Structure formats: structure tokens, C-alpha cells
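User:
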Amino acid sequence: MNAHLTTALELAGAGLPVLPLRKGKVPFANCPACLYTSCGGRPHMKTPGPCTCPKPCHGWAAATTDLEVIQSGFWRRAWVQAGAVAYHPGGAGLTVVDLDNADAITWARENLPATQTVATTRGEHWIYLGTMQSANGVRPGVDIKSTMSYARWLGPGTGTMTKLPDTVRALTVKEPALVRPGAQAVTVPAPARGGECRHRTPAYLERGIAMAEQRITDARDAVHATVYRTFLAVLSVHGRCGCLTDTHIGRLFAAAQAKGESARHCTDAWTNARTKLGM
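Assistant: Predicted structure:
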């Protein structure tokens, strides 16, 4: 049996969703039937869809633990051509901190809790229990591979895997897109659209924003849906009288990004909530 196929079957049996990589260490290209969006699976948008293609041609979204699929005809031929075995960390509940050089490794040793470590060609993979948004270049020589991403299988490594720390989650948090220099603290502007403003004191609005931040922070799953619903709730109460400032919006975005949401997702959720409310 092909060595890559043997490894893939062992990993899948242990619960790691696997996929073959070509000799250039990249996933197999989409077949003609799945090219672009023709199959409905939106592979180039990194979103798994309803595609039932039997070939391993959807990148990370093709990763599977199904032993029958892994040994099927199309996949078996792919393993023969493959240059490596990869896995979907997020699908296994894991996050890989990919350290690409010696400086990155030194930074990790000084700033991150010890965990299972795997040597790579140029650096190390530090593997943690827990998932988050994947991102490249979060700092020099450091990539995050978790949801909607893949990592090469390079062996079990050494050490004991530990829980994903907030230090790693914070690496993908960027400045909120809507925060601009000079944003003012809570103010009580004139009511919009002639309506009576209920925010007679800053405390009413401050309490609402604080509760919204806490709701996002407490989310344990369905984070994106929670962020949208929270934005919708804030806008329904505070969005029509003109009291929300960039500072308030920035606080909500920061809370969402701390849970792994991207700035784009935050903007989309905010825009969708405004549209829902006819704003």
C-alpha cells in the first residue's frame, strides 16, 4: 500500500480529517466539474457546499475521516501522485501555530505556553486544543492554521497538547475597521428623525454597549450568529437616535474579533443588521 495512503488511514482512524497534497505541498486543483462555482460548493470562497464530487479537489473542505472515501479510486490515485499528507486542524478541534523561522520560535518560547511541538523544514508547529479563525502573517514568521485551513502532517511531535490560549487568539485581532482617530467618548446628540432619545444620561447607552460586549464574549459556539444578533439588538435600541459613536462600534467590533471574527465579518454583520432594520 502507498505510504501516504497508509498514513492517511491511520490519521483518519484517530479522528484527523485528511487530504492529499501535490508535490508542491498544495491541494489538488478542482476538477473541471467543480471549477470555480460550477458545482455549487464555492471552493474558491473557502466555503464547503453541497458538492458531492468523489475527487479530493476542494482543498481543506475535502478533508475527511471517511475511510471508504480515502481509499476510493480517485483518492487512491491521488495518494500515488501526492507529495505529502495534510489535515484540517479545525475539523479535529485543533489550532496549529506555524513558526517559520528561528526568530518566530524564540518569540513563541518567550510568549506562548508550552504544548505539543512538531519540527518542520524551517521551523516548528505548535499545536493547541481549540479552534479559531486561521490567518497568515499575524506577526513575522507566524501563521495560524485552524478553521478553513490545512497543515502538513509531519509526525506526532513531542510534548503534551494544551488548551488554546488567549495569547494566540489575540494574534488575529486587528483594529476595528470603523474606529477612526479622534473618536469621541459617549455623547448625547440630538434625537434623529424627530424621535425622543431615551439616552438621557450616558449611563443608559454605556450599560447597553457593555451588555452587548459581554454577550459576544460569553459566546461558546455559533459566534458569527451571536455577533449578528447582538449587533441587531444594539441597533434596534440605539441605532436611530444618533447616539452611537465610532467608539461604541469599535468596542463591539473588538469584542467580536477577540472571539475570532475578522474585520470583514464584523462589517458584513453590522451592514446586514442595518439593512434588516431598514437603516
